[in-house]
Write a structure and sequence with these properties.
The complex is a heterodimer of chains A (364) and B (378).
Chain A lengths: L7 H19 L10 H24 L5 H43 L6 H18 L1 H26 L16 H13 L21 H27 L1 H6 L3 H8 L1 E2 L3 E2 L2 H30 L6 H18 L3 H42 L1
Antiparallel strand pairs in A: 1-2
Helix pairs in contact in A: 1-5, 1-7, 1-10, 2-6, 2-7, 2-12, 3-4, 3-10, 3-11, 3-12, 4-10, 4-11, 5-7, 5-10, 6-12, 7-9, 9-10, 10-11
Chain B lengths: L1 H17 L11 E12 L4 E10 L10 E9 L2 H7 L7 E3 L5 E5 H6 L2 H10 L8 E5 L5 H4 L9 H15 L8 H9 L4 E12 L2 E13 L2 E6 L1 H11 L6 E4 L9 E17 L2 E17 L8 H30 L6 H8 L1 H7 L3 H6 L2 E12 L5
Parallel strand pairs in B: 1-4, 1-5, 5-6, 6-7, 12-13
Antiparallel strand pairs in B: 1-2, 2-3, 7-8, 8-9, 10-11, 11-12
Chain lengths: 364, 378
Amino acid sequence: MKKGKVTFNQVMFSIVLFNFGSSVVMGVSTSVGQEAWIPILLATLAAIPMFLIYGRIITMFPEKDIFDITDILFGKICGKICIALFTWYAIHLCALVLRNFSEFTQISAMPETPQLPIMILMILTTIYMARSGVRTLGKWSIAVFFFVVFVVLFTFVTSIPQAKVDDLLPIGEHTGAQFAESTFQIFSFPYAETVIFLGLAGSFKKNDSPYKLFLYALAIILVVFLLVFFRNLTLLGPTMMRANYFPSYVTARIIGISDFLARIESTISSNFLFAGIVKITVCLLVASKGLASLFGLKDYRILVLPLGMFAMALCCILYKNTMEMFAFLKYYPYYAFPFQVILPLFIWGCGELYLRRQKQERNI
Amino acid sequence: MAKRLLVCLLYILVALGLCGCWNYRGLDQVNIVVGIAVDFDKENNEYKMSYEVADLLTAEKRSNIGSRIITSEGKNLFDAARNAKKKELNRLYFGSSYVLVISQQFAEKEGIFDAIEWFLRDGECRETMCVALSQEDTAAVILKKDEKMSGIMSSIIHEIITKDKSVTASTIHMQLYDIYNMLKSKGNAAILPALRKTKNGDREVTEANGSAVFKGDKLAGFLTPEESRYVLFAEDKLEGGILTLDMLGRETDDISLEIFRSDTKKSFSYQQERLKVKIESSIDVSVAENHEELDLTNEEVIKRIEEAAEVMIEEKIKAVVAKVQQEYQADIFNFSDMVYKRDLKLWEELEPHWDEVFSNIEIEVSSKVHIVNSGFIK
């Protein structure tokens, strides 16, 4: 194996965990209550072409990061602008996830602990991981993936005795506009955030089909999201699910098989922690790589620590309180759209033209 | 090598420093609340809270853990909870509370939603806490223990309420989040177990005494233990209990049937602007008492008993539904939710005047009793 390359499974699992990152705890958009499985399916459908485009960009320029690609396509100045935009998105996402994590910890477990120490511990861990490189991330993903999925399955199975399947009804209560909004939400958070992985594409192996990579990951994510949704809904009921900030966590608090198997909510927290580490690390890695290529540095490693600190500072000033954090979720899709859809589409289009022109030149 | 050792040592030191947490509280630094009673003091416009706390200090090795009562007042629930610290060494910890008892006056005036909201919002309390209503003057008295009793009152109440549906079937077990869901559902009604004080031998104990019906979150009235059983029937929450029958047409009941399995299905139809709800109950029972020594090997006799039981169940369910419809107008059977879930269009049509619709629902009950055995004796 060449140095700095990651295997197929490693990348796939890290994509999966990246998507779980914050959404497994925050719950995928629940604005349409009992019918949320419809937007989940629709968003997955919408994500397929997007993921194929990401895959196409990677196959067009194998073993290249998005930063090299923009450089090739748009030249020095325009390329740099694209890199700067992408780097900003990565670092901002990093801060957002970090904030989700610290808010969650504060509400669920440590109300009197200030958020800063929680953030510091988390960011130091991820800085360490990002400095250790993509392969460490890949290995970590494989190690925790099974734990995370096990927890989801376990809580799903143990919730069955208390489940009220009736809560899935009625169907057709919400309007098309509400569905569209919810679908857009889920599409952009978390599905299309996967765009960040374009920044790591240089570490993928040439022979691994990126299409397969993204689509397999998407399939796993879909199954887990549906499980999580059914579990939360049938246990909590639609009103309670909608009223809660962290439905998965509360669901786990309610699960109890007689007295001895109860209070398993810490498993949900650890899920969030494990997947959250992956998400933050990926963002941090990509941001560092982006910044390094922006300034023409060879080694991105020296940038990880300062960028991590920057992300932490950013994370502190992002929101005034938890309510604001959840309110922002409503606007996030519009903010993220240029980075998630427009920029990749643009790169893809230009890439196709570039390849065609190269072919013509060769033919001449 | 030396450097490596030093690094290892540093790791251990750092690890030691990082475990434990900011919010550290030792067991000896908290009062573990096991039960909470909420009263409202009208004169001072204050919430009065009573907490039963597990008494770890006086517990000796041989005896059970005891408990004591702490009371406090405040402008609202959290305020009252924190005010308890004014007279206590330790802070209250709510993570292991079993029951929340709400006083009748509070439920009539303020509504129970006020009492449960904080418990759901606060991270410490559990959503699975059991909620009940006190039929006495205050809620606090429910948590009071007779001097002769040991153990924890709240734990006893919790056991009484949670095991009820499979043993006596006389009240209904409601958890904090169930109540929230019921109050926020289309029916906007709720039902809670009712508790009262009574004598048991020479001791004063707390007893489950049927259930309390809420319209919105305000108390509308009570149902007797027997009526509550048929609410359980209608709600398909029954898991056990005893039915008694009088087969010979005298004053006393001479047959007891023990319920093993119960299954109830509800359906509805809408014709000529009238909602009709059909309740189909089916139970497996065994003959547990047979005073007049009816011949249980005779198929005819078994059939007669089954039919008599069926008629009784049908009448009682009808009676309790009618009582709730006419007297309380509170949709504790979640008929509204049923219509909403199965026929959204109809629900949207009925919703504006649901109260009226609910009082006029035509109820049809059919019941199937199946005797599976008769114990050891023929």
